[in-house]
């Protein structure tokens, strides 16, 4: 075995770093995912797929990865993560429009710092709360920020701020003032690098003793406290890390959209969407929220062009995920894969599936007939 | 730049050649001016041009839902009517036109980007001022022409983006309706009788822009003093605190640029709280935009409204058949009376379509985006609202209308009476000048 290949229980693992190993299947999926990310600009050039929509989806997915640290490990549901996304986006916009900062990377640094500050503050107040109280508090802070920005002349009310230091051109990236197409490409590959690094950091984090402690806190706070874990402090730290991911994504979003306004970045619905992205992609997985982000944002961008009642889309998808894919897209792949391979080995199972569907339908029709009979003729 | 060239003229008094020359040289331009009946047997000048067969793909973003849709759907009807007329009259240089419509709310950039990704030849909209400001740099970067239906903040082309190539705006900019309101107030009350004024305007770029320009104008013309200025949120559910302030100050003139649901709410709560007993006059630049949502009791009182660059009853429909035909068509097709926002959609499409046809006849082929943008600059064209020009600053210039709000039993809808028509040169600075500097120079 080489330095990068190690044997674990008779299976070869790819070793990326100390404590970071992938099975063969995981390594293949990761490689496919990375290649897919890298060729997105080429794919969208030759297909009707929208490059900007995918890019936006990845950014919201990055915010959802941050939120998932709380959701998956501490089992805390945040309904206010747009606060950090919005703060990150606004920090970049304020630097560009109020302080004439022209470097995109400086703006991104400002986004991270602002999101860190605001998540430290909010985290201090919410870390001691659980369940519905935690959810409502995060929502409340989100709404306070939204209302503040909406009423503030400094943030230009509902009109928002441009992220164009000279009023027309995008910020410089790596010291280069790029053309529109060049800027989009460089920003996209910067996003890919940020995403990969963020995922690796999150992986390392959740597999560290700190991550295990968060799992323990999520499973039972009282027990965690009794074994000596400083629960509130750890939740606070997790909250801040989660907020930093949101701020980073928001900063990149500002650089992509080049205009920031309250509704697409700070509104409570955006918080709901970020949460849904994590669930849709599979909140039990590391990369699932990114998949969820891309899928949901893409659908939300495209739907108004094709569906009249597009506002119902998120609700319908949420219903479909809860009823049919409770583990999300990525989380369901192993189950679907196992099911398919079992049916390949034993085609008889397909007959059972058909029979199950048939009996379900029969039961449904029978229930409906009974209901109609009761409505028309009464209980007797 | 006044726009009553054909008013009162009997159409059969003009020969075809003169008419074609007048409206810009093409049958399409005549059709979009609402004078199709004069075209029987007319040959298309661009018929031999090298033009692709496939239809023109266009996209419109507008408010199709919620309170702002009272304006947005009118713009949609207007754009659809123009496209229908284009296709019924052989298309643009023989090319039919398709129009996709999408809700603009909060998605201005993504909508425009999506239209561009779909390969649209041209895009129209939005209604929102902030959305328009958001879009302009992106339009310049993507290099696909957008003719904005509204999004009329004056500073957009005067100060924020004074040098654009692909971004245009058809509807009059704010300074025109704010100064039309000033002139209307002076005409109704007299400059000497206006000592105080107040404002209730929506709290975003458009409302602040309009209030600022109205204040400058009325102070310059009358020396009046501002006694109150309130900015309720766009789409608010309550204006009573602002109305109470007005009642307390009892200003001579109240100015408002509230629109959509906010306009009807202002009138409802104004009546309920006796605001019209405490002021001499309410001048609202876009109150009439909500005409199809108004009940008869709302229009009672000293209320005057602007109607941007189009009011269907001015000139009177018995003297101006293009408007009469349009009102009939819109009422039978959609069951509403067309408002200024109808013309926003109609005129934006017409501006582009007539410029495209002009470009084809100049070049002998379909123009590139940049070429078409050049033709659109200083392009003049007709609609049933009269004559319009697209200035070198990419701002559309037309007449501004203002009149007293009343009720039309004939149309069972709100209407305007005693409509004043202000020529663009009297309510707007020439292209290249800043409105506030221009008002300051009076």
Automatic annotation (TrEMBL), chain A:
Signal peptide: none
Pfam hit, one: BPD_transp_2
Chief location category: membrane
A GO cellular-component term linked to this record: plasma membrane
Localization terms from the record: Cell membrane
Residues spanning the membrane: 27-47, 53-71, 78-99, 105-126, 133-155, 186-206, 234-254, 274-301, 313-333
Membrane topology listed for this record: Multi-pass membrane protein
Record carries keyword Cell membrane: yes
GO molecular function: branched-chain amino acid transmembrane transporter activity
Keywords: Cell membrane, Membrane, Transmembrane, Transmembrane helix
InterPro entries referenced in this protein's UniProt entry, alphabetically: ABC_transp_permease (IPR001851), LivM-like (IPR043428)
Protein name: Branched-chain amino acid ABC transporter permease
Organism: Natrinema salsiterrestre
From TrEMBL, chain B:
Keywords: Signal
Gene3D superfamilies on file: 3.40.50.2300
Top-level division of the source organism's lineage: Archaea
Extent of the signal sequence: none
Key word Signal present: yes
Domain Leucine-binding protein: 62-406
Keyword Isomerase annotated: no
Listed name of the protein: ABC transporter substrate-binding protein
């Amino acid at each position: 075995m080489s330095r990068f290949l190690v044997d674990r229980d008779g299976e070869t693992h790819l070793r990326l770093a100390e404590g970071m190993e992938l099975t063969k299947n995981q390594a293949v999926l990761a490689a496919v995912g990375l290649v897919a990310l890298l060729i997105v600009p080429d794919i969208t050039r030759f297909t009707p797929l929208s490059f900007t929509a995918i890019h936006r989806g990845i950014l919201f997915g990055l915010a959802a990865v941050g939120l998932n640290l709380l959701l998956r490990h501490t089992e805390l549901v945040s309904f206010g993560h747009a606060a950090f996304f919005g703060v990150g986006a606004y920090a970049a916009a304020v630097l560009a429009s109020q302080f004439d900062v022209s470097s995109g990377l400086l703006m991104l640094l400002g986004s991270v710092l602002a999101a860190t500050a605001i998540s430290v503050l909010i985290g201090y107040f919410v870390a001691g709360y659980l369940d519905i109280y935690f959810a409502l508090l995060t929502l409340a802070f989100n709404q306070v920020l939204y209302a503040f920005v909406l009423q503030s002349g400094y943030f230009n009310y509902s009109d928002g701020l441009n992220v164009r230091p000279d009023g027309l051109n995008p910020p410089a990236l790596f010291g280069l003032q790029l053309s529109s197409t060049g800027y989009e490409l460089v920003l996209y590959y910067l996003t890919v690098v940020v995403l990969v690094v963020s995922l690796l950091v999150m992986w390392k984090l959740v597999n560290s003793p700190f991550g295990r402690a968060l799992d323990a806190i999520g499973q039972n706070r009282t027990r965690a406290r009794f074994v000596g874990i400083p629960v509130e402090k750890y939740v606070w730290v997790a909250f801040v890390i989660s907020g930093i991911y949101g701020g980073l994504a928001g900063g990149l979003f500002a650089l992509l959209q080049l205009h920031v306004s309250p509704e697409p970045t700070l509104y409570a619905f955006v918080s709901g969407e970020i949460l849904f992205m994590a669930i849709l992609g599979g909140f039990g997985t590391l990369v699932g929220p990114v998949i969820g982000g891309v899928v949901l944002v893409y659908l939300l961008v495209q739907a108004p062009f094709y569906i009249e009642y597009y506002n119902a889309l998120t609700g319908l998808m949420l219903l479909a995920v809860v009823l049919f894919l409770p583990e999300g897209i990525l989380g369901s792949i192993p189950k679907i894969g196992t099911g398919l391979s079992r049916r390949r080995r034993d085609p008889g199972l397909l007959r059972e599936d058909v029979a199950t569907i048939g009996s379900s339908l029969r039961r449904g029709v029978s229930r409906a007939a009974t209901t109609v009979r009761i409505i028309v003729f009464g209980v007797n | 730049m006044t726009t009553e060239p054909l008013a009162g003229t009997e159409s059969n008094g003009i020969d075809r050649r003169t008419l074609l020359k007048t409206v810009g040289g093409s049958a399409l331009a005549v059709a979009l001016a609402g004078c199709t009946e004069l075209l029987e047997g007319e040959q298309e000048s661009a018929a031999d041009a090298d033009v692709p067969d496939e239809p023109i793909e266009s996209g419109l973003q507008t408010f199709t839902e919620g309170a702002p849709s009272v304006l947005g759907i009118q713009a949609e009807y207007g754009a659809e009517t123009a496209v229908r007329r284009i296709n019924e009259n052989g298309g643009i240089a023989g090319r039919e036109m398709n129009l996709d419509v999408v809700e603009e709310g909060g998605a201005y950039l993504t909508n425009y980007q999506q239209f561009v990704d779909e390969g649209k030849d041209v895009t129209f909209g939005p209604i929102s001022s902030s959305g328009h400001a958001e879009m302009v740099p992106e339009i310049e970067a993507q290099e696909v022409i957008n003719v904005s239906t509204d999004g009329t903040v004056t500073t957009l082309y005067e100060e924020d983006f004074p040098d654009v190539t692909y971004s245009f705006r058809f509807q009059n900019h704010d300074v025109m309706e704010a100064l039309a309101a000033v002139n209307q107030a002076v005409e109704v009350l007299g400059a000497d009788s206006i000592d105080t004024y107040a404002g209730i305007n929506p709290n975003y770029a458009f409302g602040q822009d309009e209030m600022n320009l109205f204040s400058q104008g009325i102070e310059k013309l009358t020396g009046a003093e501002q006694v109150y200025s309130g900015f309720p949120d766009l789409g608010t559910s309550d204006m009573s605190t602002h109305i109470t302030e007005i009642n307390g100050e009892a200003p001579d003139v109240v100015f408002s640029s509230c629109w959509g649901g906010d306009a009807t709410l202002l009138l409802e709560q104004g009546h309920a709280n006796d605001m019209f007993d405490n002021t001499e006059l309410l001048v609202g630049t876009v109150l009439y935009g909500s005409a199809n949502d108004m009940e008869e009791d709302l229009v009672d009182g000293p209320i005057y409204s602007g109607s941007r660059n189009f009011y269907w009853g001015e000139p009177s429909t018995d003297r101006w058949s293009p408007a009469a035909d349009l009102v009939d068509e819109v009422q039978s097709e959609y069951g509403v009376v067309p408002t200024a926002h109808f013309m926003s959609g109609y005129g934006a499409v017409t501006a582009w379509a007539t410029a495209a046809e002009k470009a084809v006849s100049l070049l002998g082929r379909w123009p590139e985006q940049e070429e078409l943008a050049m033709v659109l600059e200083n392009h003049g064209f007709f609609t049933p609202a009269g004559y319009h020009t697209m200035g070198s600053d990419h701002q559309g210039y037309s007449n501004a209308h203002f009149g007293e709000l009343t009720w039309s039993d004939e149309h069972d809808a709100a209407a305007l009476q005693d409509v004043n028509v202000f020529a663009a040169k009297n309510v707007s600075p020439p292209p290249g000048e800043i409105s506030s500097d221009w008002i300051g120079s009076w």
